[in-house]
Queue: 4 jobs
Job 1
Amino acid sequence: MEAGKGGQRGCDKRGRRRFGHRASLGRAYRCRKAKRPQTTPLRAIGWSVIVYGNSLANGRVMNPLIELIAPEPKHAKHWHVWRNQPLSKLYNPMLDQTPDQLSERLSRSQPDLSAGAQQEFRWIVHYSGEPIGTVSLNEVSYRQKHGAIGYHLDERFHQRGFGRIAVSMLIERIFAGTDLHRLIATISAPNIASIKLIEAVGFRREGLLREHFLIGGSYVDVFSYGLLRGEETTHQR
Ligand SMILES: CC(C)(COP(=O)(O)OP(=O)(O)OC[C@H]1O[C@@H](n2cnc3c(N)ncnc32)[C@H](O)[C@@H]1OP(=O)(O)O)[C@@H](O)C(=O)NCCC(=O)NCCS
């Protein structure tokens, strides 16, 4: 079995257990305590000065510079890579789309929330100026005042708290920029990371959609989550 960069099987270089690693499926084990990482200069969001933040021992970063920006055609190739990463394909009924098709989709889903009857709005998640994922508002019903959200990060940036920050920012932006009253999220029952994230930002589990997704030839149960305006949890960022 392959050892993590920290030298211990099933552990990453920061000393955290590697979820999904074969070692983490067996008996319980503890990773050696991680060394505190070096101090890293980071610009805090919304601050006009440069501040210095510490990476925390659990891999999270204080005041990471996460931004949601409008998609450009050049982001299509990144989106294509993220969609084809193992966890995305494992938990989501992903349509096979080429970078050209995704580029066309990006041009139709510009994040101008005041744009009339648009059904999909998409933002690229930037971390320190680098594209690391995407968040979206889809299936908007302007009459019923609800819509669905989606989110997706490059696997290299998982488990650092970035997903939660980006989704919090998405929710804040949707409620500030529209009169939508309710957001929904549908999540494969085994997708623990997504379930933890959505509950952390305030969504409540409202139901189980039995065998709702067809992924890789198998039917998968899906949890349905909902969030009403005013129920969102805000997070430090
Ligand atoms: C879902 C996703 C966006 C989470 O992003 P992330 O940046 O890793 O999430 P965060 O670091 O903010 O973590 C959120 C919570 O999930 C937990 N978590 C993250 N990855 C995990 C994993 N692989 N297994 C178990 N828990 C995990 C974190 O510990 C955290 O829980 P906590 O609040 O109790 O500490 C990311 O896993 C992803 O892009 N997955 C592939 C696409 C996908 O499935 N999107 C969801 C469609 S519904």
Note: Strands lie at 39-42, 51-54, 66-69, 121-127, 130-141, 146-153, 182-188, 204-215, 218-228.
Job 2
Amino acid sequence: MLLSGLTTPLDVLALETWAPGTARQVLAAEPSGASAPVADGARAVLRLANISLSFGGLAALRDIDLDVAEGEIRAVIGPNGAGKSSLLNVVSGLYRPDQGEVWFGDHAFRQVPTAQLARHGVARTFQNLALFKGLSVFDNVLMGLAHRVRAGFIRQVVGTPLARRIEAENRAAAEDVIGFLHLQEVRDRIAGTLPYGLQKRVELARALVARPRLLLLDEPFAGVTLSEKQELAQHVRGARDCYGTTIVLIEHDIGIVMDLSDHIAVLDYGRKIADGPPAEIRANQAVIDAYLGVAHEDETELAI
Ligand SMILES: Nc1ncnc2c1ncn2[C@@H]1O[C@H](COP(=O)(O)OP(=O)(O)OP(=O)(O)O)[C@@H](O)[C@H]1O
Ligand SMILES: [Mg+2]
């Protein structure tokens, strides 16, 4: 067992500076002067306002507005190169937009401070797997709590009852999500030795362990088998239903997207060309054209 005391770097990563469930202090780096947004009906957990991003001469995102309400599963779809990952990278602070703002609840950012993302209740997975392949499943999941560490705090509390309590709470949170995602049987396996679909599930567990308010998933079903895909989709739905997590999901499998999402935003060449419930999107001619890459004459529907 890697975590038997408070002596490894991973022990240090597993510690936190506040008790789960208590109010968290939120610091808005680069706050904008605008007033707090209020979505129609439900409050927006995430709001993008006029986001544009370019790489040299290439416009990856053009004037994107997006409201994601509390508790919804919001898919972002579009052909390859449409700007989907760029959008998540802006939301998670990896890219700084040329213009526009990202809002998490009442806090607005020109550029999201990546280091503070988890403290704003935001977690993400990546299009390409980003696991610690040499660590066990359990320790990978525990890494999802690493943001709760402050080195100075660690030095002060090592070996104290407080440190032991925090470690116990973090381990309990990891066990909980491992149970929730049915990973108990592979709990002690080295993550890199697992089938790809299970590795994707471990990545989901690591993103969920801190019980994020907002979870950003970039192609969580890519490269897995059909049955693994259906299982993972149920777990994503379960995260929303059981943990109340709001989810933004990038996915190419239109069937899964239609089944799983409350609303779907469609990007094409960096523009948002449609945004609405699945039935509306399925029949939207601009969306069909974007996917087929042809001008239309007949009314048709997206094949799912
Ligand atoms: N770091 C980068 N540097 C230069 N160009 C980039 C960078 N990131 C993305 N792009 C370009 O921006 C556009 C949008 O890319 P993005 O990865 O956001 O698309 P995507 O919708 O996620 O595509 P896919 O479905 O293939 O994952 C593409 O033309 C891509 O080549
Ligand atoms: Mg992408």
Note: Strands lie at 44-55, 58-69, 73-77, 99-104, 107-109, 122-125, 214-218, 246-250, 263-268, 271-276.
Job 3
Amino acid sequence: MTASQSSVAVPVADGGAAIDTRALRKAFGTLVAVEGLTLAVKRGEVFGLLGPNGSGKTTTIRMLCGLLAPSAGAATVAGFDVGTEGEQVRRKIGYMSQKYGLYDDLTVIENISFYGTIYGLHGSTRAARIATLVRELDLEGRINQYAGTLSGGLKQRLALACATAHEPPVVFLDEPTAGVDPASRRRFWEIIHTMARRGTTILATTHYMDEAARCDRLAFMSRGHLIALGTPDEVTKQFGAMSVEEVFIQLQHQDERKSEMGKRKSNVGQGVGR
Ligand SMILES: Nc1ncnc2c1ncn2[C@@H]1O[C@H](COP(=O)(O)OP(=O)(O)OP(=O)(O)O)[C@@H](O)[C@H]1O
Ligand SMILES: [Mg+2]
């Protein structure tokens, strides 16, 4: 793909949804990680995917990135089907995984350059893009430092630079700020919101509720199911809560009760405690 192709207008599905899922499901053997997930994320939206550990957020993102085949249902990202057009999907997305995927023994500039090349950037186009990323992500003065020696906040910004080297219209961020200090987290989200204002669609997971409160819309997942959806204000009102954090805690307690009931049923079925 050339740089000019990467900046072509995004083919969006269904009147503007950048991400569109219909009854998406993923099972690993008997474990159902995602069940019946239907949602649409608008172009330029900052969309937060929330839920306790193991609720299916990463599995959802991996399906939407075309890295994991859905067991059932369908989804389009930037207008392409994740099941049948994985290659086109991967060209249209940036993915920052929970593990970042940086090369510790490459410098900052080498990491960005490497990802730029993978995404099809060359010559002066690649050099110009690298310069923009270094400037916009505050990496100046660090370009020759090995990625493995960077602080958490810098690693995170470098990972974002690598994931967006090809200016993808849709960006998936899986817990991008885990373990990062508050000032770096704030700076990171400012950058994310700037990208969204320019038209990039962002789907991010986070366990930080101050970040969730700043998303345009939120989806709460519990044990693979979508259990609440709306703007931070809408979900807060819907649950009669004072804050997104309170909603999350209510939902997590609900989730734990369900899990406990599930365990009791299965123990009774197996004759445990008789
Ligand atoms: N490759 C796999 N094989 C088997 N089970 C898996 C696999 N990947 C994920 N799971 C299971 O699917 C469920 C959902 O996992 P997932 O990683 O999507 O959760 P998550 O919401 O991202 O959690 P966290 O907040 O801890 O990152 C978990 O029970 C997990 O153990
Ligand atoms: Mg996860």
Note: The pocket of magnesium ion (ligand 2) is lined by residues 57-58, 98, 174 (CB under 6 Å).
Job 4
Amino acid sequence: MKHVELRSCHVRMIGLGAFIIAASVCWTASNARADVAPRPDEAASLQVQEDQDEGSANASRRGNWSDDFESYANGSQMHGQGGWQGWDGSSGAGAFVTQVQNHTTGGLQSVDIRTASDLVYPFSGHDSGVWNLTVWQYVPGIMNAPNGQYFIVQKEYNDGGPYQWSIQMQVENDGTVHCDCGAADNGTPGVMWIADAWNLIEAEIDLDGDSVTLSYNGTVMGIYSWTAGVFGTDSGCPLGGCIGAIDLFAFSGTSVYYDDFELTLKVEDVPCEGDANGDGTVDPLDSGFVLARFGCEVGVGDPDCDAADQNGDGEVDPLDSGFVLARFGPCDY
Ligand SMILES: [Ca+2]
Ligand SMILES: [Ca+2]
Ligand SMILES: [Ca+2]
């Protein structure tokens, strides 16, 4: 179990929802558990492909998601659709479905991020594993965004806060994309965006190893700590990190389009079957661990009892002893 505890402060101008503040920003990262409220809109669209593994202790680690904007009415407001919302729940910070651009094979639509847009997709339950996030971003050559257009992933997002930014990329009028990779304005050289074309943003987010690798059109722009992130308030997540929300922030710029979001679990932290005590080997100690917990109540907050239910049937009994016995040997991690 990893423990991370860091603290740092920055003073800078930051985009915060639909306005700018000069802020002295301090953050503390730790592996203290946060109570991240489930968000009722997560399964609201057919485009949301939840891949829950029912009955598994790892169910919350799953939650693959994609959105190609094809299931919404052309011209409709994304606030309140498909799990999307304006920043802090404000409909005024929403964005509209458009057929001006599309990336989806056989599709017609994307989302138009412009002027007041500050469109958020909150997640929940992404608290471990390695995740790939990809999205295509169309930048018109005539884009005019004097303060940049922002692609953001929040490690923490809650309406009204607290928030924490772990990815922030700025598309600039001068033809470059910059990132706050690991720190605000850390001087990372920008890469060129391709005008009047779809540009690929990729992030590999390793919640177990606490790192993120951020790329633009295949060029790695930064590899840095996910929990240290960029700036904001960290109220903690299990196992060193979580994925809070995507945020598409126009900052008063003209249109930039996004399409074909995909968030996919790449590596799951698969537990070793039979290793009830978690020491990396399945042996008589595990048999004893299970035996000592025969009859305990599973699923009420006792992690040792839950671990003793090795076959996942909700009881700790001789079937679990047999399950362990059949797997004696080293774990094959
Ligand atoms: Ca599309
Ligand atoms: Ca063991
Ligand atoms: Ca059992």
Note: The two ends are 16 Å apart (CA to CA).
